[in-house]
Automatic annotation (TrEMBL):
The encoding gene: AlNc14C90G5664
The name this protein goes by in its record: Multicopper oxidase putative
Alphabetized Pfam families for the sequence: Cu-oxidase, Cu-oxidase_2, Cu-oxidase_3
CDD domains: CuRO_2_LCC_like (cd04205)
Assigned protein family: Belongs to the multicopper oxidase family.
MF (Gene Ontology): copper ion binding; oxidoreductase activity
Top-level taxon of origin: Eukaryota
Organism: Albugo laibachii Nc14
Length: 576
């Protein structure tokens, strides 16, 4: 193998094509493993699949296909894999949330995830237990457009998995971040760098060699091949745990055609798009370069208020806020040399979740019952627990931090057990009503909120006076804000703005996100901030839809997959 061909095989590994199954059933066999990797040059232990980076395990299936993934654990920590964006109708136990829809998979044990790939679009999978996915267990889950719907027309497509990246393991960072004696301000740790398809770069001279003695200076970048005149679909995914990311390609404009798997009316041309944590976005790019040219792709992390509160002098010494990749015109242009292209001088971007319009909005039944609920979120310490935790108030109830139950919530419903207050349950009695939720943020940070099992309309994003909290949900049919009623956008992740703090950090107003969805999917579904540091501290609620579907079913736990329930042992409990 020549030096160049060896370089090519390394640089291009992250975008190797994954074959689309020709069958209606896709079967995969995964073993969750730990291994040493140098994604940005610094060697550390990561979690992956079959001893490899998860960027090698992009799942591509037809819309509506049955997906069967045999999953074996070869790691010490518990494992639960969430199929982010999948509705899981009638397969609620396959949602893959430890402590909510299953007991975590323990070492040397095997379970089988079995569900339908619905809806279509760009989605992803990730560990859903504490902060685990930040250590590497995350990947793309692509559900191809249905041939019977308006397909996105492109000559080729590439998947770009972007993520903030830490050198220290997430469990250690989380322990330090929540301990008030170590972190009196509650500021969450900032990442070291940004990866594109598990490739990034760090300045090895700034790395603490006492903690990370191995650092490879020569790091190839993820590279994709363009051909002049073609149109390319880039499936962008922010798989990070903290940072919003702005994506751009030097000298190339793009048009947004999908967000969180939902087709949208093509946006105006922009040169940058922003993805909050857990969001996906599909863009079309025209290949306007000439043969043998190459350009940088850039994934810029957002830091500083309202995204991070850690003082700049406490950032990692090797902090690199920009992840780079390469677009090259023809394989002959793939050399070890970096592009010489320049970043855009003026950034023209889509900044907000509401800057897009759904192509074919979901229509709610006109005679459906209307319901309205209020959730308030904050992060604080209390006299009874001095650590920094997330707290939730459901419909004006006392603020409570979310605690993973030892009996998974879905199983508790099937057994007719009482759901603990620490699950922050929001009970929705009917599976046939239009539900509006006012989500108030009493924290200065922006929080990307994700609802499992549904997509939702975004009715409002902004700030309101604190004394207005709760006034919108009165008796009878609620009247949601009308700001976006004429241009509906539907997603499964949307950000609630931060409150405006005074000099002492006290909120002078409240951030507000109003969402609306049709409750046609019974189950126990998390609604939570997708920033991993916040989710793990309890910034989480459980939306329980039509509990009678489970509590009054004579089969009890028999309604769920036997193998998955069996992971819990004779008693369906576990120790978190």
């Amino acid at each position: 193998m020549t030096k160049l061909s060896k370089y090519l095989s390394t640089a291009l590994y992250a975008i190797a094509p994954n074959l689309l199954s020709a069958n209606d059933t896709v079967q995969l066999d995964w073993t969750i493993t730990r291994f040493l990797a140098s994604y940005d040059g610094v060697q550390r232990s990561v979690i992956g699949i079959n001893g490899q980076s998860t960027s090698n395990f992009t799942v591509r299936v037809k819309c509506g296909s049955r997906v069967i993934i045999k999953t074996t654990s070869d790691v010490e920590e518990g494992v639960a894999i969430h199929w982010h964006g999948m509705f899981q109708k009638t397969t609620q136990e396959m949602d893959g949330v430890g402590g909510v829809t299953q007991c975590p998979l323990t070492s040397k044990k095997t379970i089988v995830y079995d569900f339908l790939a619905i809806p279509c679009g760009t989605h992803w999978f990730h560990a859903h237990l504490k902060t685990e996915y930040m250590d590497g267990l995350r990947g793309a889950f692509i559900v191809e457009d249905s041939p019977h719907e308006n397909k996105v027309v492109a000559d080729e497509d590439y998947v770009l998995q972007m993520a903030d990246y830490y050198h220290e393991e997430s469990a250690s960072l989380f322990q330090k971040a929540t301990d008030i004696s170590l972190n009196p301000t509650g500021a969450k740790p900032v990442w070291n760098t940004v990866l594109i398809n598990d490739r990034g770069r760090i300045d090895c001279t700034k790395v603490d060699k006492t903690l990370f003695p191995v650092c490879n200076k020569q790091q190839p970048l993820t590279t994709i091949i363009f051909e002049t005149g073609k149109t390319y679909r880039l499936r962008l995914i922010n798989m990070g745990g903290f940072a919003p990311l702005n994506f751009s390609v030097d000298n190339h404009e793009m048009t947004v055609v999908a967000a969180d798997g939902v087709r949208v009316k093509p946006s105006r041309k922009v040169n940058s798009v922003r993805l909050f944590v857990a969001q996906t976005m599909d863009v079309l790019i025209e290949a306007v370069g000439e043969a043998n040219q190459q350009y940088f792709m850039r994934s810029k992390s957002n830091f500083g208020p309202p995204y991070t509160s850690l003082p700049r002098e406490k950032f990692p010494a090797d902090f690199n806020p920009v992840g780079l990749g390469r677009v090259v015109y023809g394989e002959k242009a793939v050399t070890p040399c970096d592009p010489k292209s320049k970043d855009w001088k003026t950034i023209d971007t889509l900044e907000n979740d509401v800057d897009l319009v759904s192509l074919i909005p979901v229509i709610f039944p006109k005679d459906a019952q209307q319901n309205c609920s209020i959730l308030q979120f904050t992060i604080k310490t209390t006299p009874s627990d001095p650590n920094w935790l997330g707290y939730v108030s459901v419909d004006q109830s006392p603020f409570t931090t979310f605690v993973l139950p030892t009996l998974p919530t879905l199983y508790a419903l099937a057994l007719g057990r009482e759901i603990p207050v620490s699950s922050n349950p929001l009970f929705l009695a009917s599976a046939e009503m239009v539900q509006t939720i006012f989500i108030y943020n009493l924290n200065p940070a922006v929080h990307p909120m994700h609802l499992h099992g549904f997509i939702f309309r975004i009715l409002f994003v902004g700030n309101v006076p604190i004394d207005k909290i709760g006034s919108s949900c009165g008796k009878g049919t609620p009247v949601p804000p009308s700001r976006y009623k004429e241009s509906i956008i539907e997603r499964d992740v949307a950000s609630v703005t931060g409150c405006t703090p005074d000099n002492l950090g006290n909120c002078q107003d409240a951030g507000l996100l109003v969402i609306q969805f049709y409750t046609d999917n019974p189950g126990a579904w998390l609604l939570h901030c997708h920033i991993e540091w916040h989710f793990a501290t309890g910034f989480t609620s459980t939306v329980i839809v039509d509990e009678k579907q489970f509590s009054q079913n004579p089969k009890g736990l028999g309604v769920f997959d036997e193998g998955l329930v069996g992971t819990c042992g004779e008693e369906p409990t576990y120790r978190p």
